[in-house]
What does this fold into?
Amino acid sequence: MKLSRRAFVKLSGASIGSLLLPRGIAAAEEVPRFHLHKPVGEKQTICPYCSVGCGLLIATDHNGRIINSEGDPDHIINRGALDPKSLSVRQLANSPLRLHKPLYRAPGASSWQEMSWEEILPLIADRIKRTRDATFETKEGDVTVNRTRAIGFLGGAANNNEDCYLAAKLARALGLVYIEHQARI
It folds into this structure.
């Protein structure tokens, strides 16, 4: 029986594979099966730290608590790579030092007091309206300007495109001149 080199390699591979097959099946049956005790949901998000906009995959448990964060390999910007700040997103979200209610310090007060969102939002809106009304300019010479220079707006890296669009629309509607974003600073 004369074997070509190609036939010899095929026969050798088949022989070795057949020898390992019974052990492979037995080994696969011996592997213990571990089941997750907690349901885990994975969501895509953007890193909130710098203005690069790296993609993150965030795994949460059934209570919404972050249990893992890693780079999104399908994201066009970072392709799964993350810097140390991005890796600490879990610590940011789960920190016991994280504030859950707004703090307010009254003019002249030396300490902060906790307020609810229902109390603080009308206070902020009232101050914006009073400042805008007191400083609003309709004309400069013969030119209509409709602006206020007493209020500024600064966007952050955690804002997505839709957030930035709506914030810019609100700022322009209020007549703000000083509108800036963290990405340009």
